[in-house]
Amino acid sequence: MPGVSAAQPPARSRAERTLGQRLLAWLRELTQFGLVGALAYVIDSGLFNLLQHGPLGVLAGHPNTANIVSACIATCFSWVANRSWTYRGRTRDNTVREALLFAFANAGGILITQFCLLFTHHVLGLTGPLADNIAAYIVGFGLGTAFRFFFYHYIVFTGRTRGNSDSDRPAGSAAR
What's the predicted TM-score (pTM) here? Predict the structure, then answer.
């Protein structure tokens, strides 16, 4: 047909491809975040149970202290893994500012978990290992993880590394 270029796809196809690419980038980010989170979960819950209910019971009877220690160690792992793998294309030049925001996000997640433990112990009166694990590592960790994902995505890892073009940016991120 005269006047119609076969090489130029319709505008709608380009928009769909862009949306598809954005969805794939978001899904990749969510998957990587989930894998890092799963490993951090194993570190956190394993250390918590070892400190609280393990053979030595170093922090037996102190679930909040055991949770803070285990969460801090898991947070250090999570920082390194998320910065170097999950969000490697969205890190900031100002690493200290990014680390402070990351720590703030994790403090929020820890506070959510702490609230769940405190509520279970002091309001519900449940103090056994099963109650501790459900409160801290099912309810608290789940709510804290949702909070951290959105905080990391929209507040912490929003910068650019040198050499990234706008087409390489993850879904939902704006150029700075």
Answer: 0.66
